[in-house]
Design a protein that fits this description.
The chain is an alpha+beta fold. The protein contains three helices and ten strands; from the N terminus they run αββββββαββββα. The strands form two sheets. Strands 1-2-3-4-10-9-8-7 form an eight-stranded antiparallel sheet, with no helix packed on it.
């Protein structure tokens, strides 16, 4: 799934076919989304409303989806056995959920290029989703704009 991060919605549809749902949401900030549901679980791609070409800046993977050899639904201990020590967590965060984060790529202004965050309702329970975000998108955009000038 990580290879679809940064692709526009049309490119994602060429790879995954037509989504089960698509639209606009104001929850967690205004954004456009496309949503896929299958036997393996759900995938939701989101693009901030301000991006005209609907580039996937974040992806949410539901239970049954896989990334880097771990399946959403595995407890934190099993994820750590596959991916190694997390960069942050597991620790209690917002909404009473526990989070464990992995950072990929270079850091820009104290933010990783890509964040992968797993969440669970219980520290020893099954993870309920994986949130993937291209944190460096803003810096990428600025670089593209400056190069065009």
């Amino acid at each position: 799934m990580l290879e679809l991060l940064g692709k526009n919605f049309d490119e994602i549809k060429q790879v995954l076919a037509e989504p089960a749902a698509q639209g606009h949401s104001g929850k967690f900030g205004p954004h456009n989304y496309i949503f896929y549901q299958s036997e393996e679980g759900f995938i939701r791609f989101s693009s901030p409303e301000s991006i005209n070409d609907k580039v996937a800046i974040s992806i949410i993977l539901g239970p049954g989806q896989e990334i880097y050899g771990v399946m959403v639904g595995m407890p934190f201990t099993e994820i750590m056995a596959v991916l190694g020590t997390p960069d942050r967590g597991p620790e209690l965060g917002i909404n009473g959920l526990y989070y464990m984060d992995y950072y990929l790529g270079e850091f820009k202004n104290q933010a990783p290029e890509i964040l992968i965050s797993f969440s669970a309702a219980d520290i020893n329970g099954s993870t309920q989703d994986a949130f993937i975000k291209w944190e460096a998108y803003e810096y990428y955009q600025r670089g593209q704009l400056q190069a065009a000038r």
